[in-house]
Amino acid sequence: MLLQEIREEIIQYGKKAVQSGLTRGTGGNLSVCDRASGLMAITPSGIDYFEIKPEQIVLINAQSGKIIDGDAVPSSECDMHRIFYKYRNDIGAVIHTHTTFAATIATLNWTLPPLHYLVAYAGTDVRCAKYATYGTVALAKNAFEAMEGRKAVLLANHGLLAGGKDLAEAFAVTEEIEFCCELYYRAKCVGEPVLLPQDEMERMIERFKDYGRRIEEHEEI
């Protein structure tokens, strides 16, 4: 089977998203771009994550959008995934969810500000893209524009889109930004959160690049 390992990995992370409470039912969608073949593998439309079979993961040419293989209809948001693979080389996987707190902030059309250093998983902040009907090229373009220089974007009145070099990173970004959206919601309920400065967020972005892969250097205490 073409790209069997990638297809199976997508199914695995789809189940993990449900078990982690990041999506429910058939909501959201996941994809991976195989740069060697130029193909994007994406979840099918309307099939429960625990019922999806590898052959139902749809393979699409990332440049042309032509369906190459798959025994199901691709996610309605395939253009919103494909635009990142076509124009950004740093994105190898994309996860779209309707997580509760990210969707809450998105309904307010707010940017997620740097209230916590974990926002740096995505960037110095997370912008909210202009609203457009789901499954349209307009939404894909809005998301792409608002996610410039970042690894996540809120979709106005909709949800969250996160990217990474692979599914593991895209999943981590999804989890951390949902957590930060919850913090923002809770902080706004009782007051106005104190935000971290730009230089600190840039420092955090640099630290996260090698997180878990280097030994920290500590100053003398």
Describe the protein in words.
This protein is of the alpha+beta class. Helix content is about 35%, strand content about 15%. The chain contains six helices and eight strands, in the order αββββαβαβαββαα. The protein has helices at about 5-20, 80-85, 100-105, 135-145, 165-190, 200-210; strands at about 30-35, 40, 60, 65-70, 95, 130, 150-155, 160-165. Strands 4-3-2-1-5-8-7-6 form an eight-stranded mixed sheet, sandwiched between helices. A hairpin with a 3-residue loop joins strand 7 and strand 8. It is globular, with a radius of gyration of 17 Å. The relative contact order is 0.14. The mean pLDDT is about 95.
Which SSEs are present, and which pair or pack?
Layout: H1 4-19, E1 29-34, E2 39-42, E3 58-61, E4 67-69, H2 78-87, E5 93-97, H3 100-107, E6 128-129, H4 137-146, E7 152-155, E8 159-164, H5 167-190, H6 198-209
Parallel strand pairs: 6-7
Antiparallel strand pairs: 1-2, 1-5, 2-3, 3-4, 5-8, 7-8
Helix pairs in contact: 2-4, 3-5
Keywords:
single chain, 221 residues, alpha+beta, 8-stranded mixed β-sheet, 8 strands, 15% strand
Short précis:
With 221 residues, the protein is of the alpha+beta class. The chain contains 6 helices and 8 strands. β1 (29-34) and β2 (39-42) form a beta hairpin.
